[in-house]
Amino acid sequence: MAGRIRKSDIDEVRSRVNIADIVGDHVALKTAGVGSLKGLCPFHDERSPSFHVRPAVGRYHCFGCGEDGDVYTFLMKLDHATFAEAVERMAQRVGYTLHYEDGGGPAQESGNRARLLAANRAAGEFFVERLASPEADPGRRFLGERAFDRAAAEHFGVGYAPKSWDELTKHLRGRGFTNEELAAAGLVSSGDRGPYDRFRGRVMWPIRDLTGETVGFGARRLFDDDKGPKYLNTPETPIYHKSQVLYGLDLAKRDMSKARQVVVVEGYTDVMACHLAGITTAVATCGTSFGVDHIKIIRRILGDDSGLGEVVFTFDPDAAGQKAAVRAFAEEKRFAAQTYVATGPEGLDPCDLRLARGDEAVRSMLDTKRPMFEFMIRQQLNAHDLDTVEGRVSALRASAPVVAQIRDPSLRPGYARELARWLGMDLDDVTRAVSYAAAHPAPQESETPRFGTERPPSTPNGAVGNSSSSDEPPAAPAGPTLAQLPEDASTRLERDALMAILQHPTAVGRDLLTKATEAGFGNRALAAVRDAAGASIMTAAGPDWLESVTSAAPPALTRLVSELAMAPLPQHRGEDALTAYVQGVVSRLVERDLERRHRDIRAQLQRVGDDPVRMREVQQELIRLEAERRALRQG
Predict the structure, then answer these.
(1) How many Å is the maximal CA-CA distance in the chain?
(2) pLDDT at residue 550 above 80?
(3) Angle at 20 between CA 88 and CA 309, to 5 degrees
(4) Which of 120, 216, 400, 615 has the fewest CB atoms found within 10 Å of its own CB?
(5) pLDDT of residue 17 exceeding 90
(6) Nearest 5°: phi and psi at 538?
(7) Are 480 and 361 in contact (CB under 8 A)?
(8) Cα three-residue angle 175-179-180, rounded to 5 degrees
(9) 340: which strand partners?
(10) What is the pLDDT of residue 428?
(11) Is residue 464 one of the residues assigned to a domain?
(12) 81, pLDDT greater than 50
């Protein structure tokens, strides 16, 4: 039976614990006068530190939100621990043996935080032990192929989950854990045959909290007959909340605080590669997008209140990586530190870069980092044809809001000048566009434009709307329906081509589909759907095609995507006739774009003057476009 901890023991443990050490596991503290330390409050979001700790009296107080207490209160509020759990954790930390009244002992109820942590700890030891077994050869081979040796696996606690129904379950039950506790820890699931191991036949990474306690696991699929996801994580549990943990943070936190730097990478192997290459400030999210809760954790560790630190993001060059960049950019203003983007040569992530070119290449990747704003502006410009007036104007509309969102006002004029130079446009025109964007922020998803989408024109009629004065981002406005689209010939062609693309992508064919998603559109709503299709093109032949396109499109256009995918096409007899129709309508769209580009190049030819090299380049481009147009007509 659980007993009450003696009050004298509670007081003794409290006196032996340095509260600054406990708080320091979660918050970067710095001197704030005699006998006082301060940092960013872990209980509310703030820009300047108002959370104070006084080790001599064993208490903390936040002058911002009013939170106050001792080391036990801190653990109870931050980790959702019970009072008894907080005392027991601190007693274990200082090596003190507790005494219980009425002859009882520590509480052992199911779901007890200490028990769940103990179960995860035991599971981690089990996985590490099994990695050395003969059956774990696929796991060792997986690690070896990525240049992770035994020492690296030991450093990160990497293990192997046997390809067995319930080997872990039996092992942990033999250690005294109940099925209920194992289920609460996310280690086992229940089926018709009873409890079974959640993780089977996978490489295992322990996910640890700031104190180094294992709160969950990430698991990588190894076998072809494993029909589960490539990466499988612990589900939400009383001790594991994926939005509030970062893989590698327990190893990185000290150097993060010292160097005032964090490098956010995509996955577990990228964290390992960075640390082994000497970038010991690398962390990664665990099966979820980088979000506000992650930012709060990082800011506390960095002591992010002076603007002197740096946050470096690495993104994959694929569509998912671009969406991750947009989400990160949307939250960039929450940092006081400077934000950057580092990309590996040829789009290699840190793990592949280390494997291909060694540790020095991974370190050099950080040397080429660019400010987040420059990266975002460049991405917007890359999505437009800057050789045409229309393309440059569209690029300005897309990139001006990015410049307008730069939180340091002293940087905006400089970026406006750079944008004018990159676009080859007059500085006054760019400055006006930036000023307009600052005064009329468009309420879009994540408050930022998507890659490759065209912004509304800088006119009152074209503006999507103004942001609400509330702190909460306003809901996206409803986009046009199919019936509300203009009936001009150009819009009808774009609409019909998208209907063909969404409904019969396989019949259209990958090559033609790719060309169509790169073609210019006049209607902005349809252009956004085109971009969503382009971002999802790898799923075009699969069952998730429409779902992928819908996910990639702005929320306001979800209905339009559905209507384009469901609207009836003209009647055709047989598959051959249908294929001929969809390829024909998409080909007309692509040919229209080729004709536009042909006109633009011919206009360039008029402006070349006496430059023979440029003249030859333009003529060759005309020849290439004409050949492409002939090939398109010949099918």
Answers:
(1) 101
(2) yes
(3) 125
(4) 615
(5) yes
(6) -70, -20
(7) no
(8) 120
(9) 312, 371
(10) 93
(11) no
(12) yes
* CATH code for the domain of 178: 3.90.980.10
- Identify the CA nearest to 237 among candidates 198, 268, 211: 198
Q: What is the pLDDT of residue 100?
A: 86
Are residues 324 and 305 part of one domain?
yes
pLDDT digits (tens, 9 = 90+) for 108-126: 543 488 899 999 999 999 9
Residue 520 to residue 593: CA distance in whole angstroms: 6
Q: Which of 349, 368, 387 is the last residue of a domain?
A: 368
Six-digit token pair at 143?
Answer: 């690690």
Phi, psi of 285 (to 5 degrees): -75, 165
- Among 282, 378, 394, 362, smallest CA distance to 329 is for 378
Tokens linked to 253: 């936190």
Q: Which domain range does residue 283 map to?
A: 249-368
Where does residue 613 rank: exposed (0-12), middle (13-18), buried (19+ CB within 10 A)? exposed
Per-residue 3-state assignment (H helix, E strand, C coil) for 527-587: HHHHHHHHHCHHHCCCCCHHHHHHHHCCHHHHHHHHHHHHCCCCCCCHHHHHHHHHHHHHH
Lookup result for tokens 């006084």: 54
Three-state secondary structure call for residue 28: coil
Question: What letter represents residue 301's amino acid?
Answer: I
CB 305 within 8 A of CB 48: yes
What does the alpha-carbon distance between residue 61 and residue 224 come to, in Å, rounded to a whole number?
A: 54
Query: How many domains are there within the chain?
Result: 5
* 577 lies in some domain: yes
* H-run or E-run covering 367: helix 359-367
Q: What type of residue is 125?
A: E
Considering the domain architecture, whether residues 379 and 443 belong to the same structural domain is answered as yes
Report which of residues 308 and 264 the model is more confident about: 264
Distant-in-sequence, close-in-space partners of 137: CB < 8 Å, separation ≥ 6: none
Write the CA distances from 67 to 43, 79, 305, integer angstroms. Answer: 8, 15, 20
- Pair 267, 284: CB distance under 8 Å: yes
**Do residue 124 and residue 257 come from a single domain?**
no
Instruction: List, in order, residues 6 or more apart from 485 with CB less than 8 Å away.
Output: 491, 495, 523, 525, 526
Contacts of 606 by beta carbon, 8 Å cutoff, 6+ apart? none
What φ, ψ does residue 354 adopt, rounded to 5°?
A: -65, -40
* Total residue length of the chain: 635
Q: Are residues 360 and 486 in the same domain?
A: no
Q: Answer yes or no: do 630 and 492 share one domain.
A: yes
Residue 178: both structure tokens together: 């109940």
Looking at residue 69, what DSSP letter applies?
E
Neighbouring residues of 40: CB distance < 8 A, sequence distance ≥ 6: 27, 28, 46, 49, 51, 299, 300, 303, 304, 305
pLDDT of residue 450: 34
Cα 205-210-211 angle, rounded to 5 deg: 95
pTM metric for this prediction: 0.62
Strand, helix or coil for residue 108: coil
For 173, other C-beta atoms within 10 Å of its C-beta total 16
Cα gap 491→495, rounded to integer Å: 6
30, 130: one domain: no
